[in-house]
Amino acid sequence: MQKFELVIKNEKEKLYTLFSWIVIIINIIIFILIDAYNNFNSLSMVIYAGIVIAAIIIPRYFKNRKEKTGFTASFFIIIIGWVSTKYWWVGFIVLLLFVLDIIVRRKLIVSVNEERITYPSFPVKEIKWFDLSNLILKDRLLSIDFKNNKLYQHEIINDENEIDEKEFNEFCKEQLNKSELYKYN
Q1: CA 37 to CA 47: how far, in whole Å?
Q2: Which pLDDT tens digit goes with each residue over 58-112?
Q3: Could you tell me which of 49, 47, 59, 60 has the C-alpha nearest to residue 24?
Q4: pLDDT value of residue 25
Q5: Sheet holding 108-113, edge to edge
Q6: How many CB atoms lie within 10 A of CB 140?
Q7: Which residues pair with 138 in a beta bridge?
Q8: Are 170 and 182 in contact (CB under 8 A)?
Q9: What gap in Å lies between CA 108 and CA 10, rounded to an integer?
Q10: Which of 7, 62, 141, 153 is the 20 to 30 A CA-CA neighbour of 32?
Q11: Residue closest to 117 by CA, chosen among 131, 107, 132, 128
């Protein structure tokens, strides 16, 4: 069974990263302010703030240039910091923001096979061939044209394994023809 996986560009990744940075920095500042309000008696929140800062800096120092670092450790430490205080509900809110961060910053892969097209929305959308009027890849631009006049277009960023456009387009044309024949039989 022939299968194509096309990685599409996440157009809003920089915005999501900025939002994550803002959430983390605000939490670090609040941790320090909580200990300052308590005259630095226990320093527990300052220690959490220091660990969060270390969790941000250390992976960026030891990573490969092409590798993207996430905020998993930072969010996890922030959640533990809030849960260890009487403000556990703030930890729950940060947990929700962390889950959203994971969802929006995931790798977006359009999977095309003989049965269906899997589109990386949330939740994942499965598109049947008979719902499409055309599916084409041209100059690293994937166009998904629905029969109801919806059109999705995305830039492809497949780095590790290049997709042969001609082979992909022939496969899609064949599947579209099969779906039309199936519809009439």
Answers
A1: 15
A2: 887 777 766 677 788 999 999 999 999 888 999 999 999 999 988 888 888 888 9
A3: 49
A4: 95
A5: 3-8, 108-113, 116-119, 125-128
A6: 15
A7: 141
A8: no
A9: 7
A10: 62
A11: 128
Across the strands, what pairs with 141?
Answer: 138, 155
Predicted TM-score of the model (pTM): 0.76
pLDDT at 183: 58
Going along the chain from its start, the domains and CATH numbers come out as 13-104 (no CATH), 107-184 (2.30.29)
Amino acid (1-letter code) at residue 40: F
60 to 23, 25, 53, 56: CA distances (angstroms):
18, 16, 11, 7
Residue listed under structure tokens 């690293």: 140
Provide the token pair at 136.
């084409």
